[in-house]
Amino acid sequence: MIRTDIAPGIHFIEHARTNVYLVEDDDGLLLVDTGLPRSKALLLEALSRIGRSAEDIRAVVLTHAHFDHVGTAEHLRSRYGIPVYCHPDDASLAAHPYSYERERSPLLYPLRHPRAIPGLVHMAAAGAVAVKGVEDTLPLTPEALAALPGAPLLVPTPGHTRGHCALHFPDRDAVISGDALVTRDPYTGHPGPQVVAMAATADFATALRSLDALRATAAGTVLPGHGFPWRAGVDAAVAQATEIGRH
Fold first, then answer.
1. What is the dihedral of CA 238, 106, 132, 165, to 10 degrees?
2. Helix (H, G, I), strand (E, B), or coil: what is residue 45?
3. For residue 247, pLDDT beyond 80
4. Mean pLDDT in the chain?
């Protein structure tokens, strides 16, 4: 699925229940997260739709370094020379994207939450078990972000991973929340704003506290790592996620 201008100058690409975003301005494109390995063709299609090419991507920013967000980062770095940024606390995870911390084993989740199974099957078919890590990352800092297309503000939102960050675009009234807040959990299949299940979250209590940083953006549109964009305001999204709590 491709939707252009899901927020002003921000384009939405969804493949195998995982989202990536292209942020456009006069200086080029910023790619936020990279999806799974077999999403490359969809990215090229999205670039074509907006009259751009991979050479227009000035940087990749990873909200965090789980395998389903790192999927094509090394390909883009090695083939096109596109720099890849992530928070220093996630740099080791970017190189080894399956070595992530979690509070609960994911093994029983498909039995407890069978509606998640189709999404997990789609992710596997999209290359979820064959993600290549990226070792040559650059540190994601407020100063680095300010120099990239869209000039987003860095919003540290640790918990899902130690170095998870969201990106706020005040002039576009939007925040890319990554997996700090999603609108469909890939591990439970549950819809609506929430923190990702403990099966893939390093520190759930910290993740819940990080919702306050998202709320502080006061953004009208939330662009999550999984699930559809949320247009009812970040405050309402955080309220729902807080009510759901641990799962």
1. 20
2. helix
3. no
4. 94
